[in-house]
Write a structure and sequence with these properties.
Helices cover 31% and strands 22% of the residues. The chain is of the alpha+beta class. The strands form 6 sheets. A 5-stranded antiparallel beta sheet has the order 13-12-14-17-18. The chain has a 4-stranded mixed beta sheet with strand order 1-2-3-4, with helices on one face. Strands 7-8-9-19 form a 4-stranded mixed beta sheet.
């Protein structure tokens, strides 16, 4: 039985989005949504088509493929078939020609825009990306319930099951494969989605020792060797687990489209050096400090500045990365994609709200050891961040 997004949920999302548009851009006329993630958010189905949201009329989901599946999956009220843009009737207010339109300028490719513009020769395009992201950043009880389920899967697999998987001589790729199978067995939805342009990833980063600080194009603190230059993700077939290695696993999980993010580390065969253990403990301490500040009304940029200002210069070296590859954030929103807004970083000055969810990930690269640190997913509450992915401090000994 396919799980359908409830109609009341879809209606609430649309109402909140329209309210956001009315406040943020009072002159808006029509929004057109193409990206599959946003189509799913607003309609409960992920098809090849587009959603037209006029200011003063009912929204219409136009579907090229598959119209039948859209009807089967979605409770959205108005779904119509189309073969091409020529079939679409764009709502235009009287005298409102040419049309002003809001599009997802971060994700709509130029070729698609040009094909669309051929049939709808509007003369003004505005971005709708931040408005949709702002609405998506505050989760409903329905969405939070799915993230709670994902968080429990994350906890069980990384804290309870992975230590039993680790064995000397296995490759990173073998561990990644077994990890994927375990997640699927527990209820994982099978894909980890990111919003970063042209970003491919399987699960996340799985690295043994120094592999976890190997350079990566991915905008995160850690890394790994990957399968090859053509597929720089997943895990290496050549790097084998040996006694004394630190194992670094930074992966997403998800249920019905909604993700959690978690990083867990393990000491295989023997303990790490004291410097690495001390750095790891400091990262856990930082995570807990950030969690205490995840309350409605707090400002993400202030959280970032407060935490960074408390750290010594020697600790800041290789903090949130390794060498010159240090990222400038401490955590990020998460939901239908792993890297949602807002971000715990400079420039994010809107207050936190109840219903927001953050992955908090203080980490530090250690030469010849790897990436120590931690990451968990937290709900914003009046009492501070509530963790939904487990409370193990990491560096789990596997001897």
């Amino acid at each position: 039985m396919r799980m359908k997004v409830p109609l009341i949920e879809l209606e609430t999302r649309m109402r909140r989005f329209r309210d956001k548009m009315d406040v943020s851009d009072p002159e808006w006329k029509v929004v057109v949504v193409f990206s599959k993630i946003n189509l799913y958010y607003f309609t409960g189905t992920m098809q090849d088509g587009m959603l037209i949201i006029p200011r003063n009329e009912e929204a219409i989901l136009w579907v090229r493929r598959s119209f039948e599946r859209a009807l089967d999956e979605s409770l959205f009220k108005v779904i119509k078939p189309m073969n091409s843009f020529a079939d679409v009737k764009m709502p235009i207010e009287k005298g409102e020609v040419p049309l002003k339109v809001h599009l997802e300028t971060e994700t709509v490719p130029l070729a698609l825009y040009q094909r669309f513009h051929k049939y709808f020769p509007f003369d003004e395009v505005k971005s709708v990306d931040t408005y949709i992201a702002s609405v998506r950043s505050v989760k409903s009880e329905y969405e939070l319930s799915l993230m709670e389920k994902s968080g429990e899967i994350h906890r069980r697999v990384l804290e309870d099951r992975v230590p039993k998987m680790l064995r000397e001589g296995m490759s990173e790729a073998e561990l990644a494969t077994e990890l994927f199978a375990a997640l699927m067995e527990e209820g994982y939805h099978g894909i980890t989605r990111f919003g970063m342009f042209d970003t491919e990833i399987m699960l996340g980063h799985i690295g043994f020792g120094e592999s976890s600080i190997y350079p990566s194009y991915f905008n995160g603190p850690g890394g790994n060797y990957g399968l090859s230059p053509a597929v720089p993700v997943f895990g290496s077939r050549e790097r084998k687990l040996k006694k004394g290695d630190m194992v670094f696993i930074d992966i997403g999980c998800g249920v019905e489209g909604y993700h959690t993010d978690k990083t867990m580390t393990y000491m295989f065969g023997s303990s790490l050096c004291e410097d690495a253990i001390d750095a790891h403990r400091k990262c856990v301490e930082i995570q807990n400090q950030i969690a205490e500040m995840l309350k409605p009304g707090e400002i993400p940029s202030n959280i970032y500045k407060t935490v960074i200002s408390r750290l010594r210069d020697d600790f800041l070296k290789n903090f949130m990365g390794f060498g010159e590859r240090q990222v400038k954030f401490l955590g990020h929103g998460i939901g239908l994609i792993v890297d949602e807004l807002p971000v715990i970083a400079q420039g994010f000055d809107e207050p936190l709200q109840t219903g927001m969810v953050f992955a908090v990930e203080p980490k530090k690269g250690i030469k010849n050891v790897g990436m120590v640190g931690i990451e968990n997913t937290f709900l914003v509450t009046q009492q501070g961040g509530r963790c939904i992915t487990g409370d193990n401090m990491g560096l789990i000994p596997v001897y």
